[in-house]
Structure of SWIM zinc finger protein:
Amino acid sequence: MSLPPKPLLDECETMFDDVPQILERAWNYWDDGRVGDLEQVTASLYHAQVRGSGDAVYDVDVRLDDSHHVLSTACTCPYQATPYCKHVGAVLLALRDQLGGSADGRRVDGSRRTRREDDDPPVSVPKYVSDAILDRIREQELEGDGDVLFFWSHGLRDHARHMRRGKPVSTLVGRDEAIDIMLGPIRAYELAHDISAHSSDEGVDWTDAFFNDGGDAGRAGGNDGVGKAGRRTAGDPGNVENALAGVRFVADNALCSDDYVAACRNLAMCVEALALFLNAFSGLDEPADGYDDDFGGGDGYDPLDDFGMVSDENDLLVGKIRCYMELVAQHADSQTAGKALSMIGKAAYSPVVRFFDPTNCSMLIASALAFADSPDKSMWAYDMIETAMERFAEDHDRDLPHQSLFVSREVLRRYTRMVAYDLYRRAGDAAGCERLWRDHADSPALLLMHAVTLMQRRRFREAYDLVDDHLQRSVHADDADQEIVTNGLLYGLLPHGWHSVLEVCAEQMDSVSRLAGVYRHIIVHASDRADKPYVTRLRRLLKIAGVDADQWRDQAVSLAHRCAGDIAKRINGRRGVDLTEDAGRGAWRNPAYESLIVSAQLTDDALAYCMMLSYPPLDLLRTMAIGHPDRAEQVIFDAMPAGALDGGTVGGAGGGAAGGRRHGTHGGRTLAASRSTYRQVAKQLRRYGTIFGEERMIEVARGIVSRYPNRKALRDELAFAL
């Protein structure tokens, strides 16, 4: 990595020209008083400590020459993505404040520097995103009984009461009969479609203790492979609804029972029966041939459709189990509750569940959250959840029999940590939450929850610094943003990932500099039309801060340079793709950059941008025409249907004969005689008139019509321009 040139201390900002976001963070660190006392170790060496996020403290050394040129810098932080970190930047700003950039301690213009010149003015910044996000946090706080949680909410208890309302307590189906009822129809379906669950997979034993204890009665379903449920179920054995009937019967029976331990045993067997059923679909990627009218009503049998139905049934069952455990927590004694929970845990730890369906494995473990706030039952929740965290820890990955199972294990780790957070929060265990955050500081989900908790308590500066520090540790901040764009905590409210969180905090802090930094980042990396308003937001924000039109244009030019650089990176990453095609353009186009070009009238940027588009938008063409009228005119003429222009001289954008240009793009060809072609000519003429005026449009239109005097339809379509 090549280092930037060493400037005068007074011009230390230039050391961060390629990473303005680091400079903005350095300003924030200095403003927040994070730089300790400056110590002059030798005549040229200065030392200071900088307080980072949390309890971290970093040592920074800066070496200057006699003229206050910055000769070298060093910091003990782990950041290495760019030559200079924010801690170095903060110390440079503090050192300049103490010494001044020039040798006599003054600015180049002779005035004394005392503090940062672009401090946030005492203004109220517009609130575009924070209100919606803070409202969502308050809603989740109410749902979580005063806490923002990942998985637990009052809705579980409410649904549990609704699930039992008006239903009599049922006599529980016995274990062996339940096995027969569940597996009989499933086995009949498998036989009808010639599929079966895998007995082993690369060293993984899919067999289950619940079913093994009962011998082969359930799996075989009796002598005919159908069993009691198969005989009692009317209709086609190859129909997936009939295959699920037995599991539904056993589950509904258990959910209405107050024999909690045995009911949880039956529910656990239902989970494993569905897991085995889902596993039977493995490897069936396409609709099967030969199953026409018999199984699909004439449309053919598609195993993927049936797989989706079984998967949905499985998700629904796990949700019902979580609600049922709320009833167990309310009505069962401690020992009974512990035994019932162990039955659910047994299903969660079954190989076919934890490897084949890690998400629902985690949700089964989350059923322990029902006990978290119960004084005599919380120990069972701690035992189940903390045991799961230990069992799924990285140290045990070496025991996995197959490489493909690492993906499932990582999903389990991520969700189990989130479940553990809910446990500690519901149990009022603040130390547990802090320990979880500390031990898994790089977990995006936990980091987001930590930031949300700080925002919930209106500690926005701490939340900002927490996220900002995470982004600085990330080599690629854009990739880091994708970690939380899709999340279950603030679903749909973080389109820019971590920068959306920073945006909320900056709005609530009324920090112009921080918010402007977030806006600039979003503009530079924009790829969605929804990001276009950020140009207007930035302009409005800077105007509130006192930035005039000339200053805005200077900033727009600098920002456009960053946008162009980012587009170059996108294009380099798409080598071999035709960038003028729709798929190629989608990979590099930046709608916010387009808006910036137009609003600041950056004609050179418009020219460079439009040259990469097969059909540039009108507003970009209009901007390009301000400084490059001939090129803008040529773009429109090139978009004319072949044969519209005869290759002769057409009055140019400069006007008159002197401004005429020869357009031979389609010379020698005849215009296709069709209404659609004439309408394309009319469309381009309207674009031409919008940019160059009605008089020039009429001149071009008359030239086209004069070439085809006998085409009445053409004259009719161009009547507006004649």
